[in-house]
Amino acid sequence: MTPVELSRTVLHAVRRAVDEGELRVAVPERAVVTPPGPGGCGDYATNIALQLARAAQQPPRRVAEILRVRLLDDHRITDVVVTGTGFLNLSLESAASVALVDEILRRGRRYGHAAGFSGEIVRLRCRAEVRAVVVADTLARLLRSQGASVRIECDGTPDPEWQSVLGVDVTTRGARLRGDSPVTVRPVPAPADPLLLGRDAARWALLYPAAHDRPRITGDHLVQRETNPLFRVRYAHARTRALLRNADDLGFRPEPGPVSGAEALVAVLGDHPRILAAAATGHTPDRLARHLVTVADATLPLLSDVLPLGEEKPSAAHRARLALAEAAGTVLAGGLSLLGIEASDHL
Fold it and tell me: Which residues form the signal peptide (predicted)?
């Protein structure tokens, strides 16, 4: 069950409660499901009960209990726990995670992308400042991944090295519109020239902070240590690729299946399409960058158990863990690509 399917399931539970007279509310258009926060449990959580409580004129926990009973009727949901002021925490059967991994491997780096043109046409405008140009270029990538047609305009002449070194493309392109209002891209400017960091580290340094934060243009982005978020993301990706090579040498391939103890990783992988859509519509590429760090941090603990040890023969569990690792690497590679950063197979 993907997050989109789970959202529909939550709305169906609301609709049933309304039809059966237990809730008197308007059924919302969408229900947000996310990985559980502090104090939560299970695979996903939703605040739908808090969202409906005022209109229903009932305490949020009472609304949550009404929905909990109906959610448990879905065989794909193994448990629903109410926590805090009324959050619903949902655990899914293993088949749901298997389907998610299968979808990621099938779609590859385009997992989370729109299937076609959404009908949205966006005009981006930035000034000829290196951070503004990189952010505009990345926003265009994100918006196009969600099916939008994007036109970029730069006020001034960009430095040619921004294209050759940083890989940006802010030439005027896309559909011409009349009377449209441009989206102005105006992040806090870079305090120093980032070109000395090279393409990948420079783009990360400019994109990882929120637009209103001052970026750090330092050599810290180049160090290969756990304290460097970019290193953790690229290292996690490279490790998944190395595991696939090693598994091939041992004569076995990835095969989606249930993996115990990987609920956090499955949840953040399932959340990837929502993050892409939110980063595109909110014009916040930093949100994608932070999400990739979360994916990497959830991936790394899995990797030590992927390959068989000693004389151990590859089993279905090894093949399932390898498939999950490959799915995580695929999400990391796709996200880095949208940020304009190379996902290298070797570090």
Answer: none
3-state secondary structure of 143: helix
Which residue has tokens 């490959």?
A: 326
> Is residue 43, in this structure, part of any structural domain at all?
yes
**Alpha-carbon distance 185 to 106, whole Å?**
34
Q: Which residue has the higher pLDDT, 89 or 172?
A: 89
Q: For 86, left (φ over 0), alpha (ψ -120 to 50), or beta? A: left
* 3-class SS string, 307-319: CCCCCCCCCHHHH
Query: 335 near 288, Cβ under 8 Å?
Result: yes
* CA distances, 74 to each of 10, 78, 300 (Å): 10, 8, 32
Tell me, yes or no, whether 44 lies in a domain: yes
Pick the residue with more confidence: 5 or 102? 102
Sign of CA dihedral 220, 222, 227, 230: positive
- Nearest CA to 174 out of 119, 132, 133, 121 is that of 121
Structural element, H or E, at residue 132: helix 130-145
In a domain, 263, yes or no: no
Structure-block tokens of residue 196? 């000395």
| 128 and 188 inside one domain | yes
Helix (H) or strand (E) holding 33: strand 33-34
pLDDT for res 171: 64
Q: pLDDT tens across 27-79, in order? A: 999 899 988 888 888 888 999 999 999 999 999 999 999 999 999 998 788 88
Which residues lie across from 89 on neighbouring strands?
Answer: 45, 81
**Domain, as residue range, for 200:** 121-216
- Going by C-alpha positions, the residue among 118, 136, 119 that lies closest to residue 127 is 136
| 305 located within any domain | no
Query: What's the distance, Cα to Cα, between the start and end of the chain in Å?
Result: 34
Contact 125, 155 (CB under 8 A): yes
Percent of the chain at pLDDT exceeding 90: 77
- Angle subtended at Cα 233 by Cα 100 and Cα 90, rounded to the nearest 5 degrees: 35
Which of these three, 76, 92, 108, is where a domain ends? 92
Instruction: Quote the number of domains for the chain.
Output: 2
Tokens of residue 7, six digits:
């959202």
